[in-house]
Design goal:
Layout lengths: L1 H4 L21 E2 L13 H17 L9 E4 L13 E4 L10 H7 L2 H7 L5 E9 L5 E9 L13
Parallel strand pairs: 1-2, 2-3
Antiparallel strand pairs: 4-5
Length: 155
């Protein structure tokens, strides 16, 4: 049935594939558009991988159907652990804090409560502003050795 839908000239407007013993389309999470914890965005990575594997999408040369998926953080909303090939983005460093702006941009109690391991605690800090003034600001301190890089504090 699908062969009847193909264009004679080999148009790739709507490629036929992803069934049988081939590579399926990549299932991925939303990334930066709709999520508050991603370490990466899915769009670029998925495009590059599918461009590289495009020929296998339309052919059935694999031993079985191959499922590829991508999750942008360790929450793995896309259930990447259930796929044959998983691509996973993860945070590698504790958050960097701009003490001068944090109190104006962030609900500090929510950031503290968001950390599942208690690596964030509220504190006050003396800073020198861009104008050269010294002032005390409400901010947070990070215990780097406790951080598990989940990304919840980025909200």
């Amino acid at each position: 049935y699908l062969n009847a839908q193909k264009f004679d000239g080999g148009s790739l407007k709507f490629p036929v594939g992803g069934t049988g013993a081939g590579i399926t389309n990549i299932v991925h999470t939303q990334g930066w558009v709709h999520c508050h914890t991603p370490a990466t965005d899915a769009s670029g990575t998925v495009k590059v991988v599918l461009d590289e594997l495009f020929e296998e999408f339309g052919q059935m040369r694999m031993p079985a159907q191959v499922r590829i998926s991508m999750a942008c953080c360790l929450n793995m909303c896309g259930a990447v652990h259930c796929s044959d090939i998983a691509i996973l983005g993860y945070h590698r460093k504790p958050p960097v804090i701009d003490h001068e702006w944090l109190d104006n941009l962030c609900e500090i109690p929510l950031a503290v409560a968001a950390c599942p391991v208690g690596a964030i605690r509220p504190t006050k800090k003396e800073i020198v502003t861009e104008k050269g003034e010294t002032k005390t600001v409400n901010t947070v301190a990070i215990k780097n050795e406790r951080c598990m890089f989940c990304g919840n504090c980025y909200t």
